[in-house]
Amino acid sequence: MYRMLCAIPRHSVKAVSQARGISSRTLSAFQQADFNNDGFLQVPELKAMLKNQGCNLTEVQLHDLVDSIDINRDGQVSLEEFQEFLYPTSFDGCDGEDDGGVTEREMRELAAL
Predict the structure, then answer these.
(1) Average pLDDT for consecutive 10-residue bins of the chain (113 residues)?
(2) Dist. CA 82–CA 105, nearest whole Å
(3) How far apart are CA 5 and CA 70, in angstroms?
(4) Where are the alpha helices (DSSP H) in the chain?
(5) Distance CA 41, CA 43 (A)
(6) Contact in structure between 35 and 45 (CB atoms under 8 Å)
């Protein structure tokens, strides 16, 4: 999908990313971190991004981070995986109505546990 976004005129990227549920802030952070502009974040790019934020991880920690973010196990982080890492959408069984969201009633039921 990121490659598709890159092919879209710059003024349309925001509209497309929002239609896909990707905020302009997330897209901007991803684009800044993707310094080789291949549409994915690899370990060196994540390392630079985190270091810029004052977070120095070891190589093992960085690879573990990529492993935890990399849903499709291709060794790199896509825009969608980055979005899911920042703003998880899975509710792990909390969505009792299986409608893709958690209602106020479902939240109250969870709080009562």
Answers:
(1) 40 50 83 91 94 89 92 92 79 57 65 61
(2) 30
(3) 20
(4) 2-7, 10-19, 24-33, 43-52, 59-69, 79-86, 104-112
(5) 7
(6) yes
